[in-house]
């Protein structure tokens, strides 16, 4: 299977190249030349597979065995999920009539991003090890992962990459502006290859610095920067798996064979939802996918209007910028992965019987036009035919903060009670709206993207006066004492690229020494 950029060009990359490169040089995202179909007998064959076996079956459709052998792939997958606390990895929990939650947060950092980042870390390590066979010293290929975080991504990336040979990871966070638990999760990881940088500034400052480093050709070439955000294809691919595992789980329990499943996905950068769409395209039976946003509702507005527009024009001038909500991991202005879906919409709305290759080129041109106008005018308007295609496959809506808080409360007082984190609650709130219009044979599965303890303020605020004993009912054992553990973090006193660059280069010198000693002793991470 080869990969190409949504914005065109002749590049045809292997899976390895697509994963190591992250973002295409022309600004596009990598997608597979074709979406593979499921094997004829998939439903019978896979019905009793474990999560790890399912992952192997699905990933094999996208990765040639001459890139990663079947056996090696299974080892990488097994290793990626051995640190999950639940035997099913991503269990499904019934919480109401025709309503389930798919809990994606049983990994090391209690957030759904672990599902993909544990695998990504192992893939990076696998590729580097292979490139470095017989190489010593300066000749070894290294990867320097640099990312900015306002919380969730940083800790999941750190746990995915800690202690990996020939990889250093630098995570920038705005000093004092991430939640105490999330800050502790990141900075209490003291493996020598993990570097937390606390920048005096905002999240946007951090992100700007990271962008500047990636754009710095010399710095990038010297240190081979790697991307861990959800533009990385491996993250999307890893996330398709739980749609299948949830499908089999719920199907086993459904009374009637004609029952259908609707997944509802709390969305920010659209990575998680896009993975569901790929699963659908491969052939997993499901009803329209449900997209749930908070007040940062560019996606909900797209399905309403066909305009993909940064700022909500209807709320008047000066309303621009990201809104701070109770579900901060979904506070975005644009959804980076939406570009991938837009490419497919452009492709599938093309008329005529040209070759697939010609259509691909045309779709890239159309897509590039849309992305250029987002960049220049802050918006792109798609033709009616494209919007109709999008509406056939998705429904979308938003939930305000007050509705989110009410929803947390209403599921806490339901029977059986369920404590949802604010992101999951956005999904639950919107699912309730969709349910009013759904056919009676539809059962909903809401993706639960974080453990409620990660967003303690929103949860305790929503449940104030309800007699919640947070430490007893919500806080996991692992979080207790986390705040007191030793930390490793480097402060940067101003949001300046040069300062961060200096910190990174200094640290890399030291990492190289440590890693060479490690490579020499033959001790590698498990
Ligand atoms: C990242 C994240 C999301 C949004 O996922 P996308 O793939 O960006 O749409 C939702 N909830 C939580 C808790 C997250 O960390």
From TrEMBL:
GO terms, molecular function: pyridoxal phosphate binding; threonine synthase activity
Key words of the record: Amino-acid biosynthesis, Lyase, Pyridoxal phosphate, Threonine biosynthesis
Pathway: Amino-acid biosynthesis; L-threonine biosynthesis; L-threonine from L-aspartate: step 5/5
EC class: lyase
Gene3D superfamilies: 3.40.50.1100, Threonine synthase, N-terminal domain
Residue stretches making up the Tryptophan synthase beta chain-like PALP domain: 98-327
Start and end residues of each Threonine synthase N-terminal domain: 2-81
Cofactor requirements of the protein: pyridoxal 5'-phosphate
E.C. code: 4.2.3.1
Keyword set includes Amino-acid biosynthesis: yes
Record flagged with keyword RNA-binding: no
Record-linked InterPro entries: Ser/Thr_deHydtase_PyrdxlP-BS (IPR000634), Thr_synth_N (IPR029144), Thr_synth_N_sf (IPR037158), Thr_synthase-like (IPR004450), Threonine_Synthase (IPR051166), TrpB-like_PALP (IPR001926), TrpB-like_PALP_sf (IPR036052)
Residues with N6-(pyridoxal phosphate)lysine modification: 113
A biological process term (GO) from this entry: threonine biosynthetic process
Family per record: Belongs to the threonine synthase family.
Protein name: threonine synthase
Species this protein is from: Botryobasidium botryosum (strain FD-172 SS1)
Taxonomic placement: Eukaryota, Fungi, Dikarya, Basidiomycota, Agaricomycotina
């Amino acid at each position: 299977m080869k990969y190409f950029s949504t914005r065109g060009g002749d590049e045809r990359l292997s899976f390895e190249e697509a994963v190591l490169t992250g973002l295409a040089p022309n600004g596009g995202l990598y997608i597979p030349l074709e979406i593979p179909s499921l094997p004829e007998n998939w439903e019978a064959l896979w019905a009793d597979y474990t999560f790890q076996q399912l992952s192997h079956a699905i990933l094999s459709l996208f990765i040639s065995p001459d890139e990663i052998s079947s056996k090696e792939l299974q080892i990488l997958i097994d290793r990626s999920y051995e640190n999950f606390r639940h035997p099913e990895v991503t269990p499904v929990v019934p919480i109401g009539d025709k309503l389930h939650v798919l809990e994606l947060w049983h990994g090391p950092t209690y957030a759904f991003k672990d599902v993909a980042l544990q695998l990504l870390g192992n893939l990076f390590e696998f590729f580097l090890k292979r490139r470095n066979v017989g190489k010593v010293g300066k000749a070894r290929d290294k990867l320097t992962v640099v990312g900015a975080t306002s919380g969730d991504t940083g800790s999941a990336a750190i746990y995915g990459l800690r202690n990996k040979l020939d990889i250093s990871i630098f995570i920038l966070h705005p000093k004092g502006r991430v939640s105490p638990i999330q800050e502790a999760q990141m900075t209490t990881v003291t493996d020598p290859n993990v570097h937390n940088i606390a920048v005096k500034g905002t999240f946007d400052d951090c992100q700007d610095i990271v962008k500047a480093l990636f754009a710095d050709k010399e710095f990038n070439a010297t240190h081979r920067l790697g991307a861990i955000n959800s533009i990385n294809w491996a993250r999307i691919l890893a996330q398709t798996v739980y749609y299948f595992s949830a499908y089999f789980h719920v199907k086993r329990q459904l009374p009637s064979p004609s029952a259908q499943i609707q997944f509802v996905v709390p969305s920010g950068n659209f990575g998680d939802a896009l993975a569901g769409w790929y699963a659908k395209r491969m052939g997993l039976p499901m009803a329209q996918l449900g997209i749930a946003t908070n007040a940062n509702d560019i996606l909900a507005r797209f399905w309403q209007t066909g305009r993909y527009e940064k700022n909500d024009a209807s709320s008047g001038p000066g309303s621009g910028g990201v809104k701070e909500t109770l579900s901060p991991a979904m506070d975005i202005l644009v959804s980076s992965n939406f570009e991938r879906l837009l490419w497919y919409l452009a492709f599938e709305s093309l008329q005529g019987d040209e070759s697939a290759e010609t259509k691909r080129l045309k779709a890239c041109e159309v897509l590039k036009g849309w992305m250029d106008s987002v960049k220049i005018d802050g918006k792109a308007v798609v033709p009616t035919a494209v919007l109709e295609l999008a509406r056939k496959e998705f429904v979308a809506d938003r939930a305000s903060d007050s509705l989110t808080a009410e929803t947390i409360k209403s599921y806490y007082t339901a029977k059986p009670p369920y404590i949802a984190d604010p992101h999951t609650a956005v999904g639950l709130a919107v699912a309730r709206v969709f349910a009013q219009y759904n056919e009676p044979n539809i059962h909903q599965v809401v993706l639960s993207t974080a453990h409620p303890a990660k967003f303690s303020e929103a949860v305790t605020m929503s449940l104030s006066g309800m007699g919640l004993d947070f430490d007893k009912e919500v806080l996991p054992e692992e979080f207790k004492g986390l705040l007191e553990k030793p930390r490793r973090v480097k402060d940067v006193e101003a949001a300046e690229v040069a300062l961060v660059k200096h910190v990174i280069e200094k640290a890399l010198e030291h990492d190289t020494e440590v890693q060479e000693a490690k490579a020499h002793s033959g001790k590698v991470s498990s």
